[in-house]
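Listing S7. Sequence submitted for prediction.
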Amino acid sequence: MRGVLVTQWTEFENLVIEDCPRPALENGQLRIKTQAAGISFATSLVVAGRYQRKPPLPFVPGTEAAGIVTEIAGDVGAFKTGDRVACILDWGGLAQEAVAHAVNTYAIPDSLEFHRAICFTNSYSTSYAALRWPHLLRLQAGETLLVHGAAGGVGMAAVEIGKILGATVIATVGSAQKAAFATAHGADHVINTREAPFREAVLDLTGGIGANAIYDPVGGDVFAQSLRC
């Protein structure tokens, strides 16, 4: 099997595709022939050994993959070989085969391309949970949602989900190209933070009231300023 194999902590750009051991299949798991896999900023932290969880070396990185089920073991519910699926992994996605727990695997329709399906495993589920879970934002129709990093994976998902839920979405980005991207994905207002401070712009757009809900995957000073708008 070929894949990306991490044998020591390193920067992502140093990794190469090489021969990897085939992952073992345990009860309640599916073997998937990988057709698409996701790469994120978190992936780069994992391979560098700077993430909060460190896989045992050596390992194949990648926390999301999509493909075709080729083998099953034990009770995997309704899944069967030949199914098109997307899955969430601890690691192991960046290889020709991945092994996933059935509980973390989701059937995908024929109309959904593999490379699009992987976006729903982490980015959309993360954003939906933040916007809707009772102990988090609980975004309601008619409210104003401020989304930082709106051109990134979870930011873009938050913009789209916010619009589906009936919110007015204000997006912040760092370039004109990203502003066009956020607008294309449904943002009602876009603030280029390279051109203007977002706090004043948000207050202007909301008549001084500020946002009802703020989604911040950026952190740092952005978080501190968000508390004031």
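Caption to Listing S7: primary sequence and predicted structure tokens for the chain studied. Residues 114-132 form the longest helix (19 residues). The two ends are 51 Å apart (CA to CA).
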